[in-house]
Specification:
Elements (H helix, E strand, L loop, with lengths): L2 H16 L14 E9 L5 E13 L2 E7 L6 H17 L4 E9 L5 E7 L6 H8 L3 H9 L19 E8 L1 E2 L5 E2 L2 E2 L2 E3 L6 E5 L7 E2 L6 E9 L2 H14 L1 E3 L5 H8 L2 H5 L22 H7 L1
Helix pairs in contact: 5-6
Length: about 290
């Protein structure tokens, strides 16, 4: 009933802002999965893919947890979506690293969203399952090396195991993810075999200001399958000790231990459909209480 009025409003806004009232109408995909394909292209027309990532665990369209490869992903669907991503990149002469993003419906049909012509935050999980250093590859390709000279021939690129990335942020999930600020009084990270940490401001004494992104550290786990990787990630996150600012670690732990997540049956409505993700256990913080006493 509201469509005609909203359509006219969109045309009016577009005309006012851009002098062009053309409106694109996209198909609505119900309960989609957000799948993206990592690409690398050289300066000689060659493009390869490093398989796909599932970025469906999102809050307000912002990715929170990323998985590679996508769980419960039929090989035929993988072949179609990666082939289309490579074909798209080749058709425009794409060079260096990039990501083709798609929505996948419940029938296994994929729909193109966009290409991000850069290295993305979640590139780490693609590195973990393929063993390819994407940052180094960018530099080598910019120097004029071909993909073949770097040993990156599609048939030689294989997946090994499963990787998960969690974005640890200075946000309080109990307060609707309100950004927290202050000085980090205590910082101890989780670590161990198969755990990788990518971060900058994560150390004791760091001052978290309201003027920059709330991302504190990226935690990446790699193991043989989704269940083992989730368990390893959960253990690493529980080993973190961060005092002075709130973080979203309690929320991430709830995600990692959710049965639907562990079964790989996730879509972009996963967080909204699971209110139990927002029930948290009270933290003890015994050490600092003792020191203050």
């Amino acid at each position: 009933e509201e469509f005609e009025e909203l359509f006219k409003r969109a045309v009016s806004e577009a005309t006012s802002a851009f002098g062009n009232g053309a409106v694109f109408i996209e198909k609505f995909i119900e309960n989609p999965r957000h799948i993206e394909v990592q690409l690398l292209g050289d300066y000689y027309g060659n493009v390869v893919h490093l398989f796909e990532r599932d970025c469906s665990v999102q809050r307000r369209h912002q990715k929170v947890v990323e998985i590679a490869p996508a769980p419960n992903f039929h090989p035929s669907i993988r072949k179609k979506i990666t082939n289309d991503a490579v074909r798209l990149a080749k058709s425009v002469g794409y060079e260096n690293a990039g990501t083709a993003e798609f929505l996948l419906d419940e029938n296994g049909d994929h729909y193109f969203i966009e290409v991000n012509a850069r290295l993305q935050v979640e590139h780490t999980v693609s590195e973990e399952i393929t063993g390819i250093d994407l940052v180094q590859s960018q530099i080598k390709l910019s120097e004029g090396h071909s993909l073949a000279s770097l040993g990156m021939i599609q048939d030689h690129i294989h997946m090994k195991g499963c990787a998960i990335q969690c974005r640890v942020t200075t946000e309080d999930p109990a307060q609707n993810f309100q950004p927290d600020t202050g000085r980090i009084e205590v910082f101890r990270s989780g670590e161990g075999f198969g755990i990788r940490l990518d971060g900058a401001s994560a150390f004791a004494g760091a001052v978290i200001s309201p003027y920059y992104d709330s991302l504190l550290v990226k935690v990446i786990a790699h193991a043989r399958d989704l269940a083992a990787t989730s368990s390893k990630m959960s253990r690493a996150l529980r080993e973190f000790r961060i005092r002075g600012v709130k973080t979203n670690i309690p929320f991430l732990l709830n995600v990692l231990e959710n049965p639907k997540f562990l079964s790989g049956t996730i879509d972009t409505n996963f967080i909204d459909d699971n209110p139990l993700l927002f029930q948290f256990e009270a933290t003890q913080n015994r050490a600092q209480k003792l020191l203050r006493y």
